Amino acid sequence: MSVAEHEIKSESATEYCTTFADIQEAAMRIRNIAHRTPVLTCSTMDEMVSSDCEKSVKLFFKVEAMQKTGSFKFRGALNAVKCLLSETEQEQNENAKNEINPLQVVTHSSGNHAQALALAAKLASTESILCNVHATIVMPRGAPEIKKRAVEGYGAEIILVENTNEAREEKADVVVAERGASFIHPSEDPRVIAGQGTVCLEMVEQCAQIMMIPNAADSTSNKKSAPLDIVVIPVGGGGLASGNIIALRGLLGDSVKIVLAEPQELNDAKRSFYGKSLVGHDPNNLLNSVADGLKTTLGPNTWPIVRDMADDVMTVSEAAILRATKLVWERLKVCIEPSAGVGVAVVMGEEFRQRYIVGNNDGNEVLKIGIVLCGGNVDVVKVAKMMVAVV
Questions:
Q1: Residue 302 in contact with residue 242, Cβ under 8 Å?
Q2: Is the pLDDT of residue 260 over 90?
Q3: Which of 50, 71, 109, 110 is catalytic?
């Protein structure tokens, strides 16, 4: 077992790695740095989803594309860094050290987590009186130059390795061992999961305000008073999904349906969920999806939460993802990445419509559906060209 794996391992196989209280504490920890991202609505999209149905639908879009670094990942990275920083400062106070060594954090990533950890380290350092945070990001040599520049711009050190997962993991382990660094996994670290759970902590409160529902947090046993009936969350490695599953169950109990969304081309979560056993990608799967932010698979910390507390996992085609992404660009005027379009594609699809909207007799006049738009880091020109072929 690597150093990194040892640090993120759950204390007990029968306990979840993160609690609702952890998420509430994370919200307090990050609130003055992370953005409270907006929740948007769109009457045109409401009508598209509910056409020819007896029940009206109200969609609520939590726009994490407007989070710092352009995705929800900043929340988890910031919470993890601030937790470590607090521990380090406490140790230094207790030992009355005159010499202050920087807190070393490391991860391997070529995407949103790399930028998130780099900026989290920079901003957490400005808040700390006693200690700076030095972030090291192990990235593949083939990573886009624009992402490398962003990570460097946030002040992190980049170590380039070959374009394999094995090379990245091995180098991260070396940095951990040589520098005494703390490894922060993009989806399996419990502190990261808690930070990601703050997305729905905010969204429930925001939707209640929009719908003018008092005491939204007391809706665990009263479905009619719940600000959301269904929440749709994209799933890859499961950090976003598992943290927000815990947040939603803590706030709304079983009154809310939680549906996870992934591409048909990256369907490990659906196969695991319905097979009731954790599986990775099929060895023959080329992982060829426009929603490349969801290529990571569920792990030992995220899987038990998804297995036990999610209601459904649904998949959508590449064409549906592109159409949904384009629809959000046009109607919400928000430039999301295709990974964020996956949840929208699920809700716009016939399978979801038949399963959750047509014939829904829950007693509510309006079916309230929340959708997490997880990020907005996208090559607009490249994706726009792909959209032309499916419109």
A1: yes
A2: yes
A3: 110
